[in-house]
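WARN retry 2 of 3 for item q-0093 after timeout on previous attempt; input resubmitted unchanged.
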Amino acid sequence: MGQNKNKEQVLRLIISKAWEDIDFRKNLISDPIIAIENLTGAKIILPEGKTLVVNDQTDKSKVYMNIPVEPSIEDIELNEEQLEIIAGGGQTVWADLVNNLFPELKDIIKI
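OK item q-0093 returned
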């Protein structure tokens, strides 16, 4: 539990520093690993073949939407109820995904 708390504190520090320091924000976007390690002293170790991408979403005049990576069913452990939902078309799964990932978009789409 303590380690997760420390990770949460590191993430909070990164975000608050990016909000208040435009130079740090620029460095975070251009070279996120170095920027994070220099700020926090934490070591960033990415899985092999992965890169860290930081997008600046601080412009309040824009609504942002990220396209998440498509989940691999083999990598997800689902319970019986979740398997039945997916087998039946998965509408609830999609609704939950959209609502959680894009709450601001949900509010502006009018049908």
